[in-house]
Amino acid sequence: MSAAPGPESLLDHRGNRRPTQHMPLDPWQARLGMAFHEAGHAVVAMTYDVHVISSEIIAWSPEPGSFSVTGSTRFHGENVDLWRLAEQCAAGEIAQVQYLRAYGLWTPERAAACAAEHDREYAIDTLAGFGYRLGRDHVPAGGKSWDMVKDLACRQVGRMWREIHTVAHAMTEHTKLTGEQIAAMTGLTNAPLPGGAA
What we know:
This protein is an alpha+beta fold and 198 residues long. It is 48% helix and 13% strand. The protein has helices at residues 27-47, 82-102, 108-113, 117-128, 146-159, 161-174, 179-186; strands spanning 51-60, 68-76, 134-135, 144-145, 176-178.
């Protein structure tokens, strides 16, 4: 466990504190689960030609005998299909639930605790800025529902499970990985930053 993160690490894209839910797992299991969540974001982003800057887990003890864990995947996408960007947002939750299944930890309560509303809201807001309609619990005219996006993300997570598994375990060991490290360990290509910036 590290020191408590700065407040900005716990904010969503709107500047609000991310909601937290209790995950009934031990600290190591919760840390690995978050690593799978962030690895899901990073690997699926990379398969869709999104430049991944870094992906990390943040674990700390807010008070003696307790623990909290969150994560962050930083990326830069330009000229990326926005429905695929939404899938990348959904991939974290999907990968975390799949981790629970793969490790014999799945329960309805734990699966529900994987829900990442901040990822969903980021996708909704980003797509809305370009005129795309993504509905939380319905299919808007000319758009898609979040459940539809999650179904597509589920297929991609399944296809890339070996790579996600590799990245998650490396992230658990090293806490933070760069996009180039992720590319090297998976054989994927990290798309260059627009304009050739480093």
